[in-house]
Amino acid sequence: MSDVQAAIERYDTFPKILLRNAETMGEKTAYREKDLGIWQSWTWAETADNVRALACGLAAMGLKRGDKIGIVGSNRPRLYWVFAAAQSLGAVPVPAYQDAVAEEVAYVLNHADARMVVCEDQEQVDKVLSVMEELPALEAILYEDDRGMRHYDQEYLHYYDTVQEKGRAFDRDNPDFFLKEVAAGKGEDVAVMVYTSGTTGRPKGVMHSHRALIESARLAAEFEGLDPSDEVLSYLPMAWIGDHFFSYAQHLIIGYTVNCPESADTVTADLKDIGPTYYFAPPAVFESILTQIHIRMEDAGKFKRWLFDTFMKVADRVGVDILEGRPVPLKDRLLYALGEILVYGPLKNNLGMTRIRRIFTGGAAMGPDVFKFFRSIGINLKQLYGQTECCAYACMQANGDVYADTVGPAAPGCEVLIDSETGEVMIKSPGTFVGYYKNEKSTKETVNDEGWIHTGDAGIIADNGHLKIIDRAKDVGRLRDGSLFAPQYIENKLKFFSYIREAVAHGHDRDYVTAFINIDINAVGNWAERNGIGYSGYTDLATRKEVYDLIQEAIESVNRDLAADADLAGSQIRRFLILHKELDADDGELTRTRKVRRVVINERYGNLIEALYSGADHVAVEAQVTFEDGRSGTIKADLSIRDVKTFEPLRKAS
Q1: Which of 436, 453, 474 corresponds to the end of one domain?
Q2: Confidence of residue 630 (pLDDT cuts 50, 70, 90)
Q3: What's this model's pTM, rounded to 2 decimal places?
Q4: Cα distances (angstroms) measured from residue 174 to each of 138, 166, 179, 255
């Protein structure tokens, strides 16, 4: 055996694992993509051939070990191949969020010192071209889809297919080059650099080694019993560590099939086409699905609504017990079986979740009511916990050991502890990052000399050994009377209601809790139409008295639940207003993963917060907004402020 072959068979980098897959299961489908309504497929052998051609083409263009190459686009097999092609040369892929505005993409590419960037299509190319002056290190732009690119004649623009053609010619002239480059890779090399969401400041470039990703993905896959027959739908942003873990690392290690939807608009239909067996989604996706279910049921006939409501009461009562194999009275078991035929089964089929064997959520806190809904209809939804800095691998729930208010015990190979002084969650993981790019100070602040990562989350270890996340440590506070204030927990309870898209709770160092509400324009708009309420747009609908009545009812329901919680009864919401606009990542109010940027909210809407605590019943507002086409505008509105009923605590705090 040659030295090159021996080095490759260590399988300590992703390109080496790709070559193994091409050899051991070459004819098995590795990727599918829906294009113009038709699913296209590539085997592992075809994938390896395409990666080799692309890698050689990039090498011919000058990409070398240690260089950075950006990736901007939606989930596409040919963009996933860029990761492997770059890694084959020892270069570092740097994905950016495809829906990021040009300035955000410019920051990532510039901070990463990217020499090249691969864009999905004309839209992403235009985005990069508009900020070229801010990217002194950028030498070449590749585009994967050539539609609309005919008249672009910049010499630094290169068509993906043309680069592959040049790569095949380069490969013929240098037949040993590719395998030698792959063999030179080592497990400790940086495999990818993903950027944090930037909740509190500028995003940081998180460097992960092949070894960290491979070991974490392997342990998680063994824990769940994944195998090559599994199918996943890859639709979450490629720039997010969660997608990289599920759609790239585990995909290569296990050899299952990754399916890429035609577009963001067709994800629901494509999910039904594929019927994946393995599925991951952040809480926002499940919240959106639940909202759509409620909208459809409100539009349904009287009998269907009665049927749904009746059997959902059965599911709420015994569904989770049946899922977990606990004893249930025969009558309820029979009713649930009937519900499976009439309601739960058709619902799961309509959602494309009939074949799912493993389904996880993570990346943010999920409201327990949303979590219970999916489990109650027989979907084995489980939670996991991790961060970008540990490959999203720290805690996982096992079958039969699932709780709505926890994220599971430490995953295999991981450790979790709670800092005795601050209450902060600390984790050790085989997926611990190499460090932040060009930011040694923050690296040392995040991971200590013993390898413990400071997560920034506040939590407790429950009696069952599971980790329970309370909130972000910096966000947990107290009211002036000493009552605990956990804004994220309150916000998640509010977002269970289909009419509420987003919520921001306020209360730290205040006398009581208040809230901003974003209505869900689809759910509330549908409700308004059914009730004969005309409106001209979001701002108009959000100011309607009837809508305020609707939201007030939801908030009072949350207050009832909080009153039953001894620790949070003092955090009931006293006053609220409905914001005049939707919180938007383009306006800097949310991250690209839809996490609230509280600092921005507090600065931008400080006058509205003060109005909530002033006793006023309305407040005038004028705000700048960014439209989808990039234009800016101004919204003016007079917002009502409502008082909300609160309830006596049912139990005293311990």
Answers
A1: 474
A2: low
A3: 0.84
A4: 27, 12, 10, 29
